[in-house]
Amino acid sequence: MKIYHLSAECYPVAKVGGLADVVGALPKYQNLAGLQAAVVMPFYDRKFTQENEFEIVFAAATLLGNRRLFFEILKEKTNKLGFELYLVKIPGLLDRENIYSYPDERDQFMAFQLAFLDWISYSQQTPDLIHCHDHHAGLVPFLLYHSKLYTRLANTPTVFTIHNGQYHGAFGWDRLSLLPEIDLTKTGLLDWAGGINPLASAVKCSWLYTTVSPTYLEELTYNSNGLEYLFYIERAKGHGIMNGIDTEVWNPQTDPMIPNKFSAKTLAKGKKANKEAICKRFELDPEKPLFTFIGRLVVEKGADLLPAAIERSLLENEGEVNFVILGTGDKENELALLQLKNKYPEHCNVFIGYDESLAHLIYAGADFLLMPSRVEPCGLNQLYALRYGTMPIVRSTGGLRDSVIDFGDEGGYGIRFIQASVQDICHSVFRAKQLYKDTAKMQQLRKQMMALDFSWTRSTQQYTELYESLKLTI
Ligand SMILES: Nc1ncnc2c1ncn2[C@@H]1O[C@H](COP(=O)(O)OP(=O)(O)O[C@H]2O[C@H](CO)[C@@H](O)[C@H](O)[C@H]2O)[C@@H](O)[C@H]1O
């Protein structure tokens, strides 16, 4: 069964966040399970594309309104990622370094989708299924079913996965002319709140949609940045499948990015050595419990709460706790955290930027990982932390709720709180500090965390069952 995954990100080719991790892993595990999954994404001028060899498998021109865009489909030659990787290259539009935030981003993603469709259409391919991820690929289902250009492919099933329902990629109707000829009686399927909304359109037009955790599926009906009613009425088409993690990339026994490898048996020694490495680098006392936050410094992740929560925790616990923050995002959050670092250099250090190796080291060496997210469709950080014996402290929302049980509850191994508030974070930090003093209990909980199975095997099976439910022959 041939499946194309369409995404703006894919690890290790180009990553900003968790979308890349999922699209870099799910197809690999699907292939191991006997499917034929490939990834199609825009071309970015980055390390991976510079250092690997590609062949041009197709070249043509597509039309974006009255702009004729020459495009090439490049295929990575070795399939070293465990799947076929195709890049859509469009000189001047899809050949830049960054993934997001260009002023013509809407044109970039629209051209990406049109070039993909033109490619499979002109080259007479008939994939068994097209799996679109987030709004960057959200127009594909509509175009497949309602554009006269792609009639041959109109029976192709589409699955749409929502990694982040806050971002819709919406734009005005003035840009309708950029689409190829479509059935104008169907424009309602593009519309939401008076504009063209790719996320909404994908939810309406795909054969079914999925969210990256069961709880998030329900949450979208009351928190989706204006699409609540849509998710309410389309609820029957939705399925919540918890993400897995790539246990080959995230393995404390073999991880090349951590200086001291460890297993559940050697975890006390291994974590201590990694913690010492972090504390040396960030000039912190390794004897104190080390709390961390890794991720985008945005409101969605509760990053705006961190400066006040850290300061108050330092005062309430009389400096008996330390913090390391790794992230990049809203400037005011970055600035507030840097100010905190200057004010409490012995207890708090901050790295503003994106650093994959440092993230691995921190997962391996920290004691606690803070995730005070307001919205968390799945969250991968808590799963990585668990695998490296680092206790997640999470707000009870989305995938965090589905994957972390409070240590005070039966079978629990993490810390959960209800409100995205400074008070709840501080209370959790206090609980963590108390727990940290009980070395034997910590050791037992760490072993328990490392034994949890969040591998892709189960989730891959659930996707396969969904595909099968579309009455496909696998
Ligand atoms: N500064 C930095 N340096 C190094 N590494 C960094 C980093 N900032 C982030 N990362 C890494 O990026 C990834 C973040 O993944 P998440 O799933 O937490 O968030 P994201 O919001 O991007 O993804 C969205 O999609 C995913 C996938 O479905 C959902 O899990 C999630 O809830 C949803 O918001 C992790 O691998 C993390 O280590």
Features:
474 residues; Rossmann fold; 2 domains; binds adenosine-5'-diphosphate-glucose; 36% helix; 9-stranded mixed beta sheet; 6-stranded parallel beta sheet; alpha/beta
Topology of helices and strands:
Blueprint: E1 2-6, H1 18-32, E2 36-42, H2 47-51, E3 54-64, E4 67-76, E5 84-89, H3 105-122, E6 129-133, H4 140-146, E7 158-162, E8 191-192, E9 195-196, H5 198-205, E10 208-211, H6 214-219, H7 228-233, E11 238-240, H8 267-282, E12 290-297, H9 306-316, E13 322-329, H10 331-343, E14 348-352, H11 356-365, E15 368-371, H12 381-387, E16 391-395, H13 398-403, E17 415-417, H14 422-437, H15 439-451, H16 456-469
Parallel strand pairs: 1-2, 1-6, 2-5, 6-7, 7-10, 10-11, 12-13, 12-15, 13-14, 15-16, 16-17
Antiparallel strand pairs: 3-4, 4-5, 8-9
The structure holds adenosine-5'-diphosphate-glucose.
Adenosine-5'-diphosphate-glucose is lined by residues 17-19, 21-22, 163-164, 212, 243, 294-296, 326-328, 354-356, 359, 376-381, 399.
InterPro entries: Glyco_trans_1 (IPR001296), GS/SS (IPR011835), Starch_synth_cat_dom (IPR013534)
Pfam families: Glyco_transf_5 (PF08323), Glycos_transf_1 (PF00534)
Organism: Mucilaginibacter angelicae
Give a structural overview.
Its EC number is 2.4.1.21. By secondary structure, the chain is of the alpha/beta class. It has two domains: 2-244 and 457-469, Glycogen Phosphorylase B (Rossmann fold), CATH 3.40.50.2000; 267-452, Rossmann fold (3-Layer(aba) Sandwich). Helix content is 36%, strand content 20%. The chain contains 16 helices and 17 strands. It has a nine-stranded mixed β-sheet with strand order 3-4-5-2-1-6-7-10-11, with helices on both faces. The protein is globular, with a radius of gyration of 23 Å. The mean pLDDT is 97. Residues 17-19, 21-22, 163-164, 212, 243, 294-296, 326-328, 354-356, 359, 376-381, 399 line the site of adenosine-5'-diphosphate-glucose.
